What does this fold into?
Amino acid sequence: MEVEYTNRRRDSLVYRTGDSLNKYLSIFWSRIQEHYESSAPRNDMLKLSPLDLHRKWKSEPTEMSSAIRRISPSVVSVSYFTDVQRTVDCSGIIIDWDDAHGQATILTSAKLMRSPAKRGDYYIVVRLANGKILLAEEHFVDYYHNIAIFKVSSDVKLKPAELDSPPLETLEGVEVVALGRNFHNCKLSESSGLIRLDYPYFGCEFLSSSTCSSTQASEGGPLITKTGHVCGINFFDDHQYVHPLPTTSVINSCKKKWSSNGIVVQPWFGLSVIDISELPRDELETAPVCYGNSSSVGNLVYEGSPADKVGVRPGDSIVALRGFTVSSASQYTEALSVVFDELHPYCPGQTPDIMLFVKGNTGSKAVHAEILRVDDRRFCYCWLGVPSFMTPLIGSQTYRACCIGESTNFLVDEDFILYSGY
It folds into this structure.
């Protein structure tokens, strides 16, 4: 890609639509750091007034505030950039530090990576609590469990948080806080609530629920108890509540498989499952009609999926999975977990035939699973989230471009703001 200079609007760089902008990464990176430098927290001497000290004495530290204080240095902001534009904000948590390589591991939500941009047309930026901005390297993306792992290099040691948590079934009614970090001002956000084990009917077998209300920028941040245990990472739904997804045991299992195999696979049937018996009354009235004795039924069937090809329809009962009888959503989840563990030694194309048996008003059907890598975008249907997912973000740099055709020129002015060329 050739770079030309033009006198039209100061000193500008010209490149053509469709060309990779990686060549300009160092320039964009410099502009991004300069743009956000003023919003970083001040690092000069802290000066407290008598009023500050009075507030400190008046508010005795609680167990929860102590837990937040301990984990807050590990909570970061993670953002998706195209050129100089910040398009998607999430939060993340530092889960590992490699002393030998000066590298930290960041865990966040895979919703950050749902943009259709091709690799090389975007990059991921991590912002720490102190305002420092680091370029992240993609390490592992799992759309099925909605997790993504990135690596960042740092010249100072970063504090990791431990992913250890009691079994989720012991946390019913436990007080929790959803944490996130704002990319623009680096401030920590907190939202308190309670863990609920009620089936949240989002179409995810590994998702529990909480009463924490927050914003989508907190997605990917940790949900913690007052003892400091991380229950999971936050999933933001379209009712502005956050939920622990997935549990730390699932996260650790995925990490272990990725480290040993370099690949994680999952059976894909192309349908979401709900438990009729767990639905509230108002939801039950609009739920699909169940055609069998099982309370576990198909809710959504995706066009072109293995389930769709054999005629599975909403309301069909889930009868059995790989030899396990299924009569509830929890049993379906347990059976899927067993299958997930069995797939560990396999790769796509070398896996056993995994069948899901379904009963509908036209009889019984056998659905043969496709074995997909978990970074396959067909798993994205679970995590649609809010429609405003690509809305402009506070503090982001201006981005202007008009794509008229493949031959359209774009200009980058001296401030590296894009505008349409000839």
